[in-house]
Amino acid sequence: MSSPPQRADARRHRHLLLTNAHAVFGERGTGASLGEIARRAGVSPGTLYRHFPTRDALLAALLRDRLDALVARGATLLRSESPHEALAAWLRSLTRRTTVYPGLPAALLAASHDERSPLHTPCLAVTETGLALIERARDAGAIRTDVPPPDILALTSAIAWLAERTGPMDPTDLTADARARSDRLVALVMAGLTTPRPTAAVPPARDSAPAAQEGRSPRSRAPAGPPA
Question: How far apart are CA 95 and CA 156, in angstroms?
């Protein structure tokens, strides 16, 4: 039995909106006009808002598979043999999957602090996955323990922010140049995390001789006279 026409139209409209939103966001970034998306999809703005009441709702629908894949990837890596390489691999995946649209890293960061956003819960799941991988690497002695885990994720977000500004964007993923650059920057972060902190400089030995304390050599002092 075929679906009612209204339900079939709703599915078709949703598909058209998602397809065209992916293209428009890829071309113009996450701040692109929602009206332009509706126009390209051949529907009214009202139809767009019935399906996706907010910009974040539209982004959440577009990014669901990518964010779910990051969480699943993290769960797999948590069972891997090397905590250090597991963390590095996941951070590389994070930069690649969160730079599909210009402006997306900033949008995800904002959503992670906004409980009303439809992106808030999936962003928290990604964050918790990253923190679990970081804690595992710290517990194994694979990375430094003096760097707060949220700072590591913040650095990775900064890398993603930079990567999506490197050259023209491919709506399906980072360009090859941007991908290579983000991977190098992740490697740099990991190198910093695994490099021991430099030891404090040893202060010079203190000369206890009175002459040295006064800044004069012993020969420069006048000899003491004979006792009276």
Answer: 7
